[in-house]
């Protein structure tokens, strides 16, 4: 397979892998047949979990409220069986106002004596707490209430190929009667019950307990004790340990009554029973912690989920069954593979894709019946189908790519990392930033991860950053006027407090991948811009700048020139609580790629090695192409291009939401042109203009948010680049209580006079601050296998291609 990195070659050509050779097929009269080969984005892996299936009806949900409402109705209408899987499944997650998941399932099994429910959350690993054991106890208690065994819960352990304790069962899916499937990025968990207004008021919609959710700040409010319940008292266990080591007996009857009466889960913290991250004024541990709605904002949620009715729902069901059976154990019910796919119901072609470690695939095979084992070949290794689908989509894109993802950690040109060096330049020592140094002194968690990993210093390797840079490079080097643009929407930082060592480290890798790394996304674009300049100037070694990490000539290129090809966005909202102005990021949890308004890829996989390389987290996604084709002038060139209705409508619906139009919150009506023509340069420039203006307004109002420049004493002085803690005072070595992760921050309002200008905002988009943390080393030394794949030997930048066969046996690529 051709190398996906532009390099010097004997022919002197770039992008040999992008030259398509198609024989023109004509009829007897010489009229050419229409060719579809360039649209073959389906994954042709050696042992694909599923094939593309036609005849599916799809519905996209762009808010949690819409998804949960449809799901609740489908659960009530279920005739035979319900499958539920998720990274996090909370029994008291609100699916409607005041209606918990427990309530919806209990009502369904009471109404239908034939209904069976199978639930498979991830078996969480400390210090992450997803309340999986508590969900198991409560949902299995439905059997007692219903008077029959109708609910089974199995906790899915990690089946990664190595460093197993680091990784998770990450699929998010529900199947009704093996003919309707829900799949995407939304877990049945706290915080997802949201709409297009991204409301920050924690007590709106009568949210209770941990449904008042914000993982980025301390929870300083309290829930009335009468509303709380400890599910461990159903069994006398605390996360599989005797209640207070046997000192407190179970209280089954009263606990079950409290659950039926509308109680909510008590808060735990970091696996310690009855201890949470919040404290009472007395300093005693608290398990009634929630947001103080009078002064603290909730964190809104941005995500996308699909409903599939038709043949591909059968593939999602089959995935659940083999996962369930792989868990083993005498108490679980062995499920049979579903029958043949449902009849055709719509016009969408869908391929269900997986990331699945070899160990997981083998466990699935071992858990299958002897008849099923005979009907299929034994697994031959891991599956990384989602990454391959992304590769196909990126390389075949002609006009634009829209990415919405929770993470962007990808190969940025470094083979090894070390906690005492910058990832951008591993040859020079650089001390930790002031904030990182403070946090490092407070714990040893990062040290422990390094001791638990075989390859703690391997850098991220996945090829998404490389492929995006390469595709943009084709446009730059072509020498012809071509409208092509990439828009990426991300969280401004991963969920969690900015004084959390893991969050700080992930910010470090994200900024290396996007901006600072020698082969970051933006620096790859700068390298191509420099290469074209050198080539046009007849400089003989012009191609060296594309591949040699020691060649720094690209640094002459103003990084602003990258904005012609790449737009980087975050999302944010604000409100007023009493006399206090507050703001919070809108948390982008989506895992979506839309290309040319033709194809949509949505699922559970993040852009990092955990999700994409197949040997770590289990993932699931669907690639969709609608048969309903339309023609639109999407780039403003005057030439119409073929689009597909489903992908185009999905992108338009999401953008209307982000631009504030759907929720009618400071709607950016000036961006309606972008909704119609996403690849038109005038329109992506308009998006950038709105996002830039919004970012400046937020920075003027709130000193503590991630920003390009630090606080300045003079209006004429831009100051230095902002630290990871923007209010960090190097002289005082403190934030002086000015960051939201400090309890003291919430004692009084933390905004400037400029807050009165927030009414000038348009929509929710803000520009990602590309200079934030510039010059800082925030690599706290966690084993990079948490965010990167690890191999025994270093791999070149095109590592994926070494796993591919020497020749493309199909147009979508095939692993050996």
UniProtKB/TrEMBL annotation:
Sample GO molecular function, one term: transferase activity
EC number annotated for this UniProt entry: 2.7.8.-
Catalytic activity: a 1,2-diacyl-sn-glycero-3-phosphocholine + H2O = a 1,2-diacyl-sn-glycero-3-phosphate + choline + H(+)
Positions of the PLD phosphodiesterase domain: 165-192, 584-611
Alphabetized UniProt keyword annotations: Hydrolase, Lipid metabolism, Repeat, Transferase
SUPFAM superfamilies: Phospholipase D/nuclease (SSF56024)
InterPro entries named among the record's database cross-references: PLipase_D/transphosphatidylase, PLipase_D_fam
Protein name as catalogued: Cardiolipin synthase
